[in-house]
Amino acid sequence: MKREIMQGNAAIARGAWEAGVKVAAAYPGTPSSEILQDVADTYPEIYAEWSPNEMVAMQVASGASIAGARSMVSMKHVGMNVAADAFMTLSYTGIKGGMVIIVADDPNVHSSQNEQDSRHYARAAKIPMLEPSDAQECKDFVVKAFELSEKYDTPVLIRLQTRVSHSRSIVEFGEPNEIEVKDYSKDVSKYVMMPAMAVKRHKIVEKRMEEIMADSSEQTEAVGMHEEHIGSSELGIITSGAAYQYVKEALPEASVLKLGMIWPLPEKRIRSFAKKVKRLVIVEELDPFFEKEILAMGIPCEGKSLLPITGEYSTSVLRKTLNPTSTPEQAISGSGLPVAPGRPPVMCAGCPHKGLFMALSRLKVQVMGDIGCYTLGALPPTSAMDTCVCMGASVGMAHGFDKASDARDSRKTVAVIGDSTFLHSGVTNLINAVYNQSSVTVIILDNSITGMTGHQQNASTGMDIRLSPAPAISLELLCESIGVRSIQVVDPVDTDLCRKKVKEELEKPGVSVIIARRPCALIPTGKGPKGKYARVDKDICTACGQCIRIMCPALTAGPDNKPVIDRETCNCCGLCVNVCPVGALSVGGDL
Amino acid sequence: MSGQALKTSTSSKCISVVLSGVGGQGTLVAGKLLGKVAMKTGLDVKVSEVHGMSQRGGSVITYVRMGCKVYSPIIDEGMADFCLFFEPLEAIRWVSLLKKGGTMIINSAPVKPLPVLLGNEKYPDRISERIKEAGEGNARVIEIDAKQTAVSFGSAKAANIVMIGALSIFTDIPESVWKESIEESFSEKPHLISMNLDAFQAGRDLVR
After folding, report:
1. What is the fold of B15-111+131-207?
2. CB-based contact A173:A135 (threshold 8 Å)
3. Res. B51 pLDDT band, cuts 50 70 90
4. Shortest CB distance from A345 goes to which of B32, B53, B95?
5. Do the Cβ atoms of A294 and A264 come closer than 8 Å?
6. Is position A117 within any domain?
7. By the 8 A CB rule, do A84 and A73 touch?
């Protein structure tokens, strides 16, 4: 069989294809984003879509499943919060065609707003969860998850985390299943969750979980996919996922029970393993999820008293705690060397968000932020953000400020939200603000793409996931239909105009929307004219430093404190030209 | 420059290579190329990177581990046999990953971070010399101008392959395996193959 080096996320996509998935939906979110893009790019047989949010994606997949097709939905950990309403009751309805939900955690918060542990959702919803530890298992577990889904009539969760999603390793391919759609049959007692039906279904759910728990202990191949490595009886480790890899690296002598299905826990299996070792340590990133369950079984074990509850684990974390003599010797400890200046993330050259945030910074307004590249507006040089919590929160929080201050704060508060985030969950907040007679000013940063997660299309870009033409929702008409009184469109590079418009809208009563529209500098429609760059006339320049303060990666100060343009990097957006008070900068130098 | 070549093909141990530089320097492309080379040699391999906030201009790191059986995809302090530093500052930042007796190859071309360009911080001087002094007897420190070498073949972008060429000298993996892997890596951009093969050869010549 063919073998290939694949990213964990690509292996998930491959697994979906081998399993004969018919419908796959997602909203992008690091570290899960590549899964669905890879499905779309590599497997034309699968219907794939970017949904406006994770809840919609979950509902699309559940509809496809009940209609009889195998379906998959993928999201990052916080996306699970959005999808949870659908998800909790899908446990009751069960499925028809297999349904698999992929959720990718982000221990260490590489690119997220929190490091929540999604295993709690499996327990809360009473849905089985599998956790692969490398790319091969990503593929194999997806195929297995579809079998289990249909065997037990339940959606199945697969938990990933950054180091599994974004690590590449060798995957041996399997044969694909045919895409098969079972006949739909109406079943009100199963799919209509009214109280009388739900109360009966709940009993079925409980029975199902007992059955899976027993099978997970007794049928390792077919259900549990656990691995037991018996080594020294002095130390036994129970672990799963990426943490397993660090265990094998740091503690080669230890006995290990690696869990494949991590919910429900295979109690019998855990008991028999615990009997084989003198000391039992649970190695799990984030919450003491296994530890508390195992303690509740009456099995003595250690875990979070030894290892951290925050951040991600590593070989060295485990060595220091459990095998200190094996710590490798470094060639150079680093002491005595100078400290390396950091490379803080900054908005790209030509980034359309820059000009708008400069305007907000100058106005010294309160800024309710949201999730996207523009969250960088919170950092210098603009430092123009007061809050950033979750998708869509900017608009709702601005409305809250308005009501808490009897509308006084709305004279000095704006909400900023990207086009994709607005369609994800900002729009319901805007409806609320209009309906409840707020006077907020909402700025939609329309860069015509979902930028932060790697440039995915959305309902306003005019293209679908496979870049075929698609209807583009008009943000203006949408806002108008909601009842927004004042809608302005500005080019964010025109920072003076942005400042003027924001000032005007802040003064107006009622809800205002400013659409700051310019495509992301990294997508084809946002790239500057080829071969052009900003030009400096050193005779006119007074070295005042205004253009330097933009912190554009393409523009830095020379020895004379006058700007130097990096021609390769300059995107020719003209922001530096606009901020120059003496007209020393112009657009149009030829390369 | 002579030294014990690492017997990758027969080694039961894992060989760990850190590739660290600045976004846009091609560390991930080089990492994926190493992955191909390992697979062709019949080894298990893991290549790991982090996405998201590490955008253009940020500090980026790719880990490659190869051997009979690779577990952790991540390389911690003192675990790296080789460090390819695509930029001198990144060498200071990640030097603690190199194991005692390991080899590091530093591309001497600096990429100044924004705080330095804005005059808020100073770019340290004599980085390679200071690292050499600090690693005296414990590390092999090799400095090459990969960028200038690559520019002489047509594009600064091939500096990553110059670095790979330099690394290849310290392994016992046949030259043909490296070259095949380069050809496959650029199969979708065939016009870049010969330039990258030249860059690879130049990297080898720089350290031989």
Report:
1. Pyruvate-ferredoxin Oxidoreductase; domain 3 (3.40.920)
2. no
3. low
4. B53
5. no
6. yes
7. no
Say if residue A336 is exposed, middle or buried (CB neighbours under 10 Å; 0-12, 13-18, 19+). Answer: exposed
Structural tokens at position A5: 């080096």
Residues A274, A365: one domain?
no
For residue A544, what are its two tokens?
């005042």
Write down the pTM of the prediction. Answer: 0.96
CB-CB under 8 Å, B115 with A344: yes
Instruction: Mark which of A326, A345, A378 sits at the end of a domain.
Output: A326
A390 and A470 assigned to the same domain: yes
Which of A516, A549, A15, A431 shows the shortest CA–CA distance to B114?
A549
- A213, A233: one domain: no
Give yes or no: residues A316 and A364 share one domain: no
Q: How far apart are CA B201 and CA B195, in angstroms?
A: 10
Burial class (CB in 10 A: 0-12, 13-18, 19+), A468: exposed
Residues A489 and A570 in one domain: no
Distance (Å, whole) CA A249 – CA A319: 9
- Do A202 and A89 belong to one domain? yes
Q: For chain A, give percent helix, strand, coil, nearest 5.
A: 40, 20, 40
Same domain, A312 and A392: no
The mean per-residue pLDDT over the stretch A193-218 comes to 98
For every residue of A509-538, which 3-state class applies, written as one string?
CCCEEEEEECCCCCCHHHCCCCCEEEEECC
Identify the DSSP state of A221: I
Q: Is residue A116 part of a domain?
A: yes
A331 closest CB neighbour out of B53, B70, B102 = B102
How many helices, marked H, and strands, marked E, lie in chain A?
A: 20, 22
Domain count, chain A: 4
**What is the residue type of A334?**
G
User: Which pLDDT tens digit goes with each residue over A70-88?
Assistant: 999 999 999 999 999 999 9
Domain ranges of chain B: 15-111+131-207
CATH of the domain at A77: 3.40.50.970
Q: How confident is the model at residue B119 (pLDDT cuts 50, 70, 90)?
A: confident
Token pair listed for A438: 């707020």
Angle at B27 between CA B26 and CA B28, to 5 degrees: 90
Q: Kindly report the CA angle at A180 between A177 and A181, in degrees rounded to 5?
A: 155
pLDDT above 90 coverage of chain A, percent: 92
Minimal C-alpha gap between A21 and chain B (Å):
27
Do the Cβ atoms of A340 and B76 come within 8 Å? no
For residue A210, the enclosing domain spans 3-181+190-220
Q: Is residue A495 part of a domain?
A: yes
- State the Cα–Cα distance between residues A221 and A16, nearest whole angstrom: 20
**A340 inside 8 A of chain B by CB:** yes
Answer with the one of A494, A525, A556 that is the final residue of a domain: A525
Alpha helices in chain B (DSSP H): 27-40, 88-94, 114-117, 127-134, 146-151, 159-168, 175-185, 193-207
- pLDDT recorded at residue A591: 47
Task: Determine the Cα–Cα distance for residues B9 and A480; give it in Å rounded to an integer.
Answer: 67
In this structure, the strands spanning B44-48 and A167-172 are antiparallel
Q: How near does any CA of chain B get to the CA of A352, in Å?
A: 16
Is A331 in contact with B99 (Cβ distance < 8 A)? yes
Helix B193-207 / helix B175-185 crossing angle, nearest 10 deg: 150
Tokens of B32: 């994926």
- Co-location of A33 and A9 in the same domain: yes
| Dist. CA A570–CA A534, nearest whole Å | 7
